[in-house]
Design goal:
The protein contains eight helices and seven strands. By secondary structure, the protein is α/β, with parallel strands linked by helices. It has a single domain, classed as Rossmann fold. The chain has a seven-stranded parallel beta sheet with strand order 3-2-1-4-5-6-7, with helices on both faces. Strand 6, helix 7 and strand 7 form a beta-alpha-beta unit. It binds nicotinamide-adenine-dinucleotide. Nicotinamide-adenine-dinucleotide binds next to helix 1. The site of nicotinamide-adenine-dinucleotide has 27 residues, from helix 1.
Length: 257
């Protein structure tokens, strides 16, 4: 129960990795505020959970929030503080791409960077004072696309930006007792792969022989957010079944002899 008496904000908490993170933090005792632009989906997840864990409704709240809109983020965080009075953990999970590589198109870049890089900045800015008061912790969800070239330059550059955002804020906020880290997932089984018939065709690219599950990423987020990681800040942790360990070696195993 690493998060007893702690309040966590999870952006993008209605689905996929964000929902798995919300569940993991709830399992470990946290009170959880889910911020998402799909509040009904979040409410329905929480209703289902309440059937097996009656404490869910008193320990959770859903706030409609679009992380691309600064006023929406400020309003949602103010509502979280109104409801719970403190913020100890920020899990910035909301993000994604549109699975279209629009090259260097202006509108595409603005949209992707606003969601994946500027979105976390807006959330951190809104939570900053509360995190300093609680000596809290921030975990942002990046991607292996932000570590090596897997395609989609706008998405990749935005996710890569999180690494230097974390390093700089780690230095700035460390003296106030606030930590900030990034997890960089490989392929994870969420709805984003539905249109491609699921992610399993990519399993051979993973030395550990499978793609990731949302719970794999949630476990790493919970670790970095917890006191178990109390001397870790400013890092980007790949959670990727080994895909970044040796991409060429992995691919060479798949070539015919
Ligand atoms: N699934 C993967 O293979 C994978 C791999 C690496 C990184 N990621 C990253 O993990 C994160 C979660 O992705 P997922 O696969 O769970 O996707 P998902 O679509 O299942 O969940 C994303 C959640 O974010 C919310 N969201 C999207 N835009 C938002 C906005 N503007 N404001 C507020 N909420 C918003 C959605 O409503 C949804 O609930 C993203 O940042 C994504 O880039 C995913």
């Amino acid at each position: 129960m690493r998060f007893d008496d702690r309040v966590a904000v999870v952006s993008g908490g209605a689905n996929g990795i964000g929902w798995a993170t919300a569940e993991r933090l709830l399992d470990e005792g946290a009170r959880v505020a889910v911020l998402d632009r799909e509040p009904h989906a979040a409410a329905s997840q929480l209703e289902k959970r309440a059937v097996v864990d009656a404490s869910t409704s008193e320990r959770t709240a859903v706030f409609e929030c679009d992380v691309t809109d600064p006023a929406s983020v400020d309003d949602a965080v103010a509502a979280v503080l109104d409801r719970f009075g403190r913020i100890d953990v920020v899990a910035s999970v909301a993000g994604g791409d549109n699975a279209v590589d629009d090259g260097l198109d202006e509108e595409h870049w603005n949209a992707i960077v606003s969601l994946n890089l500027h979105g976390p900045v807006r959330l951190i800015r809104a939570c900053r004072e509360a995190l300093i008061a609680s000596k809290g912790s921030i975990v942002m969800v990046g991607s292996v696309n932000g570590v090596a070239a897997y395609g989609e330059p706008a998405y990749a550059a935005a996710k890569a930006g999180l690494t230097l955002l974390a390093k700089n804020l780690a230095v700035e906020l460390g003296p106030a007792g606030v930590r900030i880290n990034v997890v960089a997932p490989g392929t994870v089984r969420t709805r984003v792969w539905d249109h491609q018939g699921g992610p399993d065709a990519l399993s051979p690219l993973y030395p550990l022989g499978r793609v990731g599950e949302p719970a794999d990423i949630a476990a790493a987020i919970a670790f970095l957010a917890s006191d178990d990681a109390s001397w870790i800040t400013g890092v980007t942790l790949p959670v990727d079944g080994g895909s970044l360990a040796g991409p060429l070696a992995t691919m060479s195993r798949l070539l015919p002899n």
